[in-house]
Prior knowledge:
Strand content: 15-25%
Largest sheet: 3 strands, antiparallel
Structural class: alpha+beta
Radius of gyration: 30 Å
Low-confidence stretches: 1-5
Amino acid sequence: MASIEKAPNKGRRMLLLAGTGAVGAVGAGFVAWPFYASWKPSAKARVIGAPVEAYIGDLEPGQLMRLQWRGQTIGIMRRSEQMVENLSEINDQLRDPMSSENPDQQPDYAQNLYRSIRPEILVLNMHCTHLGCVPEFIPEVGAQPFEENWKGGFFCPCHKSKFDLAGRVYQGVPAPTNLVVPPYSFVDAENVIIGVEPEGAA
């Protein structure tokens, strides 16, 4: 028995091809979306890199507060007038007292004796420049097991590196450079923001 095949309907074929193409394009978009989304920084990553603001109105002279910024421990200290005056007394014991050998350890606006915008407020990345440990904060003046004429500062018990109250490294210790001063600025008299340069800074 002979069968009769109908002649192909070109219009119907084109409609089916167009429909299949459209469905395929939508499907490809859904498949590609997770990859596209992965290229953008996540909300968590944006938060980790975001500036951090700190209230320092309650910070007493000689006190240090710590916070986290970009995975690093940042210390903010209020120095007393005596602490500020003592900074120049130990220049001859320091490797780079004027922070001139490694200017990248602090922004231009903190390249001075105090390594800060305001002499009484010190902002430091607390990680030792030797192997990244976080040194102890020992602000008291007086003999210490590791330094007879201690003027206050930071001491790393891991490898015996010492820094003064401006984060300047002593001579003859493993740490090669001063502690890093991160970019920062003052929002007002009682608030500091880490990760934001002062207005007009390069």
